[in-house]
Amino acid sequence: MKSFIKVMKALSDPNRVRVLKLLKGKELCVCEIQAVLDLAQSTVSKHMKLLEDAGLVDRSRQGTWIIYSLADGSESVYAQTMLLEIQHWLDDDQELKRMYAAMPDAMVLRGCSAKDGIH
């Protein structure tokens, strides 16, 4: 039950669902996610921690950046199921379409995020 609740809690916020959709096929750092979602770095970090604890995302370090990617779902059958299903959901969502369009601009931030000290 605990694993199920963690996954459902992680998916209960629209921004966390958007992050999962944005990570489909891409790795992103916190500053890139922050730029696309237009949220404070601390808020994005909290969202990412919940997603990571639920087994929905993995993180790795590349220099000073923390890079996030979709997890394989091996920690939880619930996470695995939701990661498979969410790939096919919400593709017609207008906010997600706007975010996908903003991705090329956001992705250049990894090299220039020093302007605000966020890595």
Please describe what this structure looks like.
The chain is mainly α. The protein has one domain: Orthogonal Bundle (Arc Repressor Mutant, subunit A). Helix content is 53%, strand content 12%. The chain is built from six helices and three strands; from the N terminus they run ααβααββαα. Strands 1-3-2 form a three-stranded antiparallel beta sheet. A hairpin with a 2-residue loop joins strand 2 and strand 3. Helix 1 packs antiparallel against helix 4, helix 3 crosses helix 4 and helix 3 crosses helix 6. The longest helix has 14 residues. The chain is globular, with a radius of gyration of 14 Å. The termini are far apart. The C terminus is likely disordered.
Quick summary:
The chain has 119 residues and is mainly alpha-helical.
Name of the CATH superfamily: Winged helix-like DNA-binding domain superfamily/Winged helix DNA-binding domain
Q: What is the H/E order? A: HHEHHEEHH
| Proportion of residues in extended strands | 5-15%
Regions with pLDDT < 50 over 5+ consecutive residues?
Answer: 112-119
Radius of gyration: 14 Å
Overall geometry comes to globular
Coarse structural class: mainly alpha
CATH topology: Arc Repressor Mutant, subunit A
Question: Main sheet, how many strands, which sense, barrel?
Answer: 3 strands, antiparallel
Query: Which CATH class applies here?
Result: Mainly Alpha
Quote the distance from N terminus to C terminus: 35 Å
Q: SSE layout and pairings?
A:
Blueprint: H1 2-10, H2 14-22, E1 28-29, H3 30-37, H4 41-53, E2 57-62, E3 65-70, H5 77-86, H6 94-107
Antiparallel strand pairs: 1-3, 2-3
